[in-house]
Structure formats: C-alpha cells, structure tokens
Amino acid sequence: MRYGLMRYTMCVLSIALLAGGTTSAAAQATSSSSGQAYPTKPIRVIVPSGAGGSVDTLARLVAQKMSASLGQQVVVENRSGSGGVIGTDIAARSAPDGYTLLMAYGSHVVNPTLYSKLPYDTVKDFLPITQVAVQPLLVNVHPALPVKSVKELIALAKARPGQLNYGSAGSGSGGHLATEILCMMGGVKMTHVPYKGSAAAMFDVVAGNTQLMVVTLITSLPQVRAGKLRAIGITSAKRSPIAPEVPAVAETIPGYDVEVSYFLLAPAGTPRDIITKLHAESTRTLTQPDVVERLARDGATPVGNTPDETARYIDREIVKWGKAVKASSAKVQ
Q1: Which of 95, 212, 280, 311 lies at a C-alpha separation of 20 to 30 Å from 120?
Q2: pLDDT digits 0-9 by tens, 91-114
Q3: Residue 18: Cβ-neighbour burial (10 angstroms; 0-12, 13-18, 19+)
Q4: May I ask the CATH architecture of the domain 136-251?
Q5: pTM of the model
Q6: Tens digits of residue pLDDT in 135-156
C-alpha cells in the first residue's frame, strides 16, 4: 500500500514537472515569436542611395545609437540605383522578421508617380516605424541674377516666362519638384536643367551657367556664406535656426511648405511588437542631445512620429509630390 502510494505520488509529480516544463517552453517560444527576445542577431538597415549622402549620414547616426541600446550591431548597407528603387525593392522582398529595415527618403514618396511601374507597392509592402527627420531646402540664385527675394524672383520669372533656368540633381529629385511646386503656386514658368547629381548642378549654378537651384542647406550654405550664391528663401513653413536670416518661401507664397523627409520602415508582415520596440528605440535615439545637435548642423529636425502618424504622413506626401511630378511632366519608364 505504501509502495503504491509512493508510485502514485511520483507519477503526479512527474506529470506536474512535465506540464510545468511544457508551459515554460511554450512561454519561451511565445516570448521569442512575439519579439520580446528580439533582437538576437545583427540588424541591417538598407539605404537606397550611395554612401556619403544625407540619408546615408542620417542612417549611420541612428544605427550607431541603436546598436548600443539594442545590444546588437545595426549595420548600414548601401544599395543605390534607379532613384532609390533598387534598394527599396530589396527591403520589400526581405523576410519580415525585424532584421532588415529601410531608411527611406524623399524619393520614396515621389517614385509612385515618377515611375510608370514599380516592383513593389510603396504603401502595402512596408510598415512604418517612424518618420526620422525632415530637412528643408534652400532657394539659391547666382549673384548676377537681379533678385534678392522670392517676390523679386517671381516678378522676374513672370516678365521673362521660360527664360530663367534652374538646375537640379535630376528629373524627379527633391530640388526639381520643390522648384516645380514653387512655379505652380507662384504662377510662373522656368526651364529645368537636370544634372547627374547635386554636385554637378551646384558647380554650374556657382559658375553662372544656370541661374538658380533649390537644394539642401548642407550643400548650398557653404557657397552662400562664401558669397558665391545668394539664398533668397527656405522651403520649410518657417525660417530655419541654422539660417534665420533667410525668409521662408511661405512668407511670399502662403501655404508653400516643402521638406525632404526620412523614414524608417520595415517589410510588411513584421510582427507588431517588433515595430513597437524599434519605434521606441529609434525615437529615444532622436531625443539624444548629440543627435539633435548633429541634425541641426545639417539643417534637419528630428521627428519621431508614431507608426500610424508616419503612415498618414506618407500618404499625404505621395499626393503632394504626385501633383508636382504631373505638373513637371517628369516620368521614368
């Protein structure tokens, strides 16, 4: 009788231990699958442009900070080509496990209209993590052009329709479309001269071969301060702390507000709790004083919107830039 009771007790204990072990294993599996154990290996951030540009610089700054906070290396991988399409497509086709992210920039919201067909769906194939930052552009003219304000530029363009030439980094670039929006809202027509990159365009406007150019502050401010260009307007709704002496274009053309945005995205299907964790870590990074200071030197402002806010912002930007693309007749087959 005593032996039978002992066997029964041991059997009950064994079942309890087994059940406890199963529960523990299930909880562990749930923890892993839900992303609580994430990340367990390095994360790559695809930058769909070349090294050294503004989006690459921003991605590396954020990646460095997130590596420290996540306890895993966050590696930037440049996959340039076709105006950001190649790198974006690679990210869209990657496993939705949180280990491949995309640092998208202005081309992300321009390309749906600029390209007749894309290999991915800009909205459906990605989940926003956050809007990382925004960066205004500067309206610059050659000193020989007899204008010192946006108002004077509009007046001259109206007096000489189609005769003023403006350079850009290429058809569909931020500078090209920002100028087209200015022309639309200002009721004027100017002639676009596309170049292969902002450096070549900047060289020609400094040389006086083209008369004006809209480009990032980090690219043009050194030339402005050297007296080689004249800055007459900034494209953000308000003046920038980095160049407070330059009026906002909106002071002349109410409602004009054009900024280049940067977004951290993940492939569609990435677990929601991983998105939540990445959002928390990336936005924490954007509040660090050295990051804020570094962005300010480039004329950029950190944002840190929620995923839902970022999704709505992307939708609005696709519509806004789409109008500019259609007005400019720019198209890539």
Answers
A1: 280
A2: 999 999 999 999 999 889 999 999
A3: exposed
A4: 3-Layer(aba) Sandwich (3.40)
A5: 0.79
A6: 999 999 999 999 999 999 999 9
